[in-house]
Write a structure and sequence with these properties.
Shape of chain B: globular
Strand content of chain A: 25-35%
Radius of gyration of chain B: 21 Å
Number of helices of chain A: 8
Strand content of chain B: 25-35%
Number of helices of chain B: 7
Strand order of the largest sheet of chain A: 5-9-4-1-2-3-10
CATH topology of chain B: Rossmann fold
Bound molecules: flavin-adenine dinucleotide, adenosine monophosphate
Shape of chain A: globular
Largest sheet of chain B: 9 strands, mixed
Largest sheet of chain A: 7 strands, parallel
Helix content of chain B: 25-40%
Oligomer: heterodimer
Structural class of chain B: alpha/beta
Number of strands of chain B: 13
CATH class of chain B: Alpha Beta
Order of helices and strands of chain B: EEEHEHEHEHEEEEHEHEEH
Distance between the termini of chain A: 51 Å
Order of helices and strands of chain A: EHEHEHEHEEEEEEEEHEHEHEEH
Largest interface: A-B, 90 and 82 residues
Distance between the termini of chain B: 58 Å
Radius of gyration of chain A: 21 Å
Chain lengths: 310, 250
């Protein structure tokens, strides 16, 4: 059995998620290859060679692969996928974009967002905003899987440098091209991998108060900032702060929910955190049902006190 | 330009799903079903394009049992011109839906297919991408802004992990909607009445020549490990003490 892990990167650095996907791949067993596809991404291919337990890095370098567009990447993956029993990637905006496309081209099911490997052909994934989990057995020759990174530890350490193999890219499809990329600048740890996350909801009342109250707290804790959908929809913070069923899934050591009611769609994205703190003025808010430590009161008073006490 | 909007009938988002006692599926009997919220957003996007004179006809399509007619009537009440039900029983995987939608797309020849990014029951986030692949079309997933540039190009802003990305895509294409694209309207009573008279055609997978056999076997549906609720602390000092000495996370 040989497995292919498709690495996410920005042509300069590997995303941390690849090590979590590797752990899922190791749970399946078999030889692991990593695909690095991009443009000007030699450093990424080099870094991938040092990942633990990798037998081969396949490196495709072409202008048509530079912006990570789904159409061209899916064509490349489809071409080589039949050499593998499994194709795996992180269940990120990137993986979710191309993996179903490759699966359809291979005429196989795609299995999204797995949280458990039960057997090489059997996987468990949350459905219905995580209220329910479902275990599926696949009958396909190639299993195209996206992995929820928070459900698998990062594979630690370095391996002996794996051999590097060049792959030709497919001719670019010309179906789509990137016109603009605007990334929210941040000095903070990445939301998905931060050890501490401070998240704000509608209770913050405005973008100004979100910033004035939560940034100093996050600074003290070296935390990433997250938010509920309501906070994003109201324009307090950018879209990529959203934690939940249809946003990001996080599982930090400490998650502090401030002015968030705890709708099931929000809980879906954070209830695997190790320790959860909730600050809310409503003693009946559902967020308290998952919080290890609940503090009932006005966030406008509590948050500055907490920041000062740290 | 004609726009095709695939709509799924799902358990209403306000209801917490529970597994059936025998683990063979999720309990749906007697519970409120609604149009998938992302599909409401897709319908709204299509309606706005039509209102702006950039689309001429909106066709809503749903795959599933006869009860999906209800969801299609909702789409018609919102403003779709016509509806197509691909009637079939049993679980449909995203790949099967994508194949059915491909067959409908080949019949209807839309300039654009607007899907939701994710159905809130299976949380698969696959069907639009799969349809786009099967058509050999461009795709733009997780759209928060759509701007048609004539009939052959669209600019689409996508919500991605680090922020926003804007793509130029060639049309026809599949676009999947994210939450910030718009705020869907409600159907008015007169429009609900009018919708009863709008055309709703029914097809079967056999009519379309599509095999919907599943590729995955559902082994079991179950409740995940539950988190124990913790304690209430009375003030910030107690909270900080607990975080330091009990949880040891700061
Ligand atoms: C299809 C779909 C997908 C969704 N996806 C997501 C998702 O991915 N992530 C997500 O988060 N949501 C998602 N939602 C939305 C979700 O259902 C809730 O609407 C949302 O999470 C509510 O956000 P909130 O808790 O900030 O706001 P609210 O529910 O309005 O809660 C605000 C809270 O702040 C408290 N509060 C107010 N003032 C103060 C104060 N001064 N001090 C202390 N507390 C205060 C209130 O008591 C209240 O509990 C989705 C919904 C749908 C339909
Ligand atoms: N049975 C269905 N009938 C019509 N459209 C569907 C169906 N299933 C999925 N879709 C469409 O595909 C989108 C994504 O669904 P999914 O891939 O299941 O998460 C939905 O938002 C719908 O637009």
């Amino acid at each position: 059995m040989t497995l292919l892990v498709v690495a996410e990167h920005d042509n300069h650095n590997l995303k941390a998620s690849v090590r979590h996907v590797l752990t899922a791949a190791q749970a399946l067993g078999g030889e692991i290859h990593v695909l690095v596809a991009g443009c000007g991404c030699e450093a990424v291919a080099e870094a991938a060679r040092a990942l633990p337990g990798v037998a081969c890095v396949r490196w495709a370098e072409d202008a048509s692969l530079g912006d990570g567009g789904a159409e061209n990447l899916a064509l490349l993956v489809t071409r080589i996928a039949r050499e593998y029993s499994h194709v795996l990637a992180a269940a990120s905006a990137f993986g979710k974009n191309w993996a179903p496309r490759a699966a359809a081209q291979l005429d196989v099911a795609q299995i999204s967002d797995i949280v458990r490997v039960d057997a090489p052909d059997t996987f468990t994934r949350p459905i219905y905003a995580g209220s329910v989990w479902a275990t599926y057995r696949s009958t396909d020759p190639v299993k195209v899987i996206t992995v929820r990174p928070t459900a698998f530890d990062a594979a630690p350490g370095e391996g002996a440098p794996a051999p590097l193999e060049r792959l030709d890219a497919e001719p670019g499809s010309g179906l789509s091209s990137r016109k603009d990329l605007s990334l929210s600048p941040s000095e903070r740890p990445e939301l998905e991998s931060a050890r501490v996350v401070v998240s704000g909801g509608r209770g913050l009342g405005s973008g100004e108060r979100f910033k004035a109250l939560l940034e100093p707290l996050a600074d003290k804790l070296n935390a990433a900032l997250g938010a509920s959908r309501a906070a994003v929809d109201s324009g307090y913070v950018p879209n990529d702060y959203q934690v939940g069923q249809t946003g990001k899934v996080v599982a930090p050591d400490l998650y502090i929910a401030v002015g968030i009611s705890g709708a099931i769609q929000h809980l879906a994205g954070m209830k695997s955190s190790r320790v959860i703190v909730a600050i809310n003025k409503d003693p009946d808010a559902p967020i308290f049902s998952v919080a290890d430590y609940g503090l009932v009161g006005d966030l406008n008073e509590i948050v500055p006190q907490l920041t000062a006490a740290l | 330009m004609k726009i095709l909007v695939p709509v799924k009938r799902v358990l209403d988002y306000n209801i917490k799903a529970r597994p059936k006692a025998d683990g063979t599926g999720v309990e749906l009997a007697g519970l409120k079903m609604s149009m998938n919220p992302f599909d409401e957003i897709a319908m709204e996007a299509a309606l706005r394009l039509k209102e702006a004179g950039q689309a001429t006809e909106i066709v809503a399509v749903s795959c599933g049992p006869a009860a999906n007619q209800e969801t299609l009537r909702t789409a018609l009440a919102l403003g779709a011109d016509r509806a197509v039900l691909v009637q079939c029983e049993g679980e449909l995987e995203p790949l099967a839906v994508a194949k059915l939608l491909r067959a409908v797309t080949l019949r209807e020849q839309p300039g654009l297919v607007l899907c939701g990014k994710q159905a809130i029951d299976d949380d698969a986030n696959q069907t639009g991408q799969m349809l786009s692949a099967l058509m050999g079309w461009a795709q733009a997933t997780f759209a928060s802004r759509i701007e048609l540039q004539g009939a052959s190009e669209a600019l689409v802003t996508r919500e991605i992990d680090g922020g926003l990305e804007t793509l130029s895509i060639r049309l026809p294409a599949v676009i999947t909607t994210d939450l910030r694209l718009n705020e869907p309207r409600y159907a008015t009573l007169p429009n609900i009445m009018k919708a009863k008279k709008k055309p709703l055609d029914t097809l079967t997978p056999a009519d379309l020549g599509v095999d919907t056999a599943p590729h995955l076997k559902l082994v079991q549906v179950f409740e995940p490990p539950q988190r124990q609720g913790g304690i209430r602390v009375s003030d910030v000092a107690e909270l900080v003490g607990k975080l330091k000495n009990e949880a040891k996370v700061i």
